[in-house]
């Protein structure tokens, strides 16, 4: 895949799934266009497909008119599934069967953003290393525990390629262009997009913790890192303090000063945010979600969840009727204030 510089043009078919990520899609296509322009020849050709050939809506509501139905994807050497919000609800055996056939025919099959979930359902990530958007990582791990999934920017494992979405598509395509046609061309394309550094596959998806929370105190960063790494089996406040070389009183003061929350409340909020992801992205039972987030019973979990989000876990599942950007906006509006709630 993308290895033979003499195989020109390389033909790529993008299969769009409803609510796909426009950013991930555009970030994959634009480097190919620019590579052709910089090289002054057609190194890449691409076509866009949907299951039935009808227009497909991105998660931002913009419809894309495809070049044809999925059946015509047989002409492409490389197949890339582009997904986005609510991919865990995707159930279409026609697509899964098509992807399996494409793999058996020796074609490279990959995914952008949450498209990894579709490949996993098709059984195409067994014995392959993959990645997925960080927000979906927890749910993916719970649903496909046998698959090796990383939090890296993108993964290329033999005839499979996956990326975490967003601008990671740009870095992955630049990497593949460089591999096939040389780093000079990849750098020229990168400059066209004011992209000053082509990130490596194993770069992390998320911002550093200190940038995410807007705090640089090293001991506080250390404690929150421990919290994020231990959601299923929460550490006690005493354990957290000892690992950071603090007293429990010092720990309390740090959280009050920088985050306007107690350590206990902040930790609980992290666990509940993880629970929310599992509720909306997996079919796990409410009890299983509770246990995966460090709660000893479904009733205690439900009580804490309702106090934090204003609805029960069961009601959260019902919000599945509010889809796409509307639900994401609803969640995003709430998150900044949760940790500070008493």
Automatic annotation (TrEMBL):
- Superkingdom to which the source organism belongs: Bacteria
Transcription regulation found in the keyword field: yes
Using the record, list the residue span of the signal peptide; answer none if the entry has no such feature: none
Q: Where are the transmembrane segments?
A: none
Every copy of the HTH araC/xylS-type domain together lies at 221-319
Keyword terms: DNA-binding, Transcription, Transcription regulation
Record-linked SMART domains = HTH_ARAC
Q: Name one GO molecular function term.
A: DNA-binding transcription factor activity
Pfam families found in the cross-reference section? DJ-1_PfpI, HTH_18
Q: Which PANTHER family match?
A: ARAC-FAMILY TRANSCRIPTIONAL REGULATOR, HTH-TYPE TRANSCRIPTIONAL REGULATOR RV1931C
This protein's name: Transcriptional regulator GlxA family, contains an amidase domain and an AraC-type DNA-binding HTH domain
* Organism the protein comes from: Thalassobaculum litoreum DSM 18839
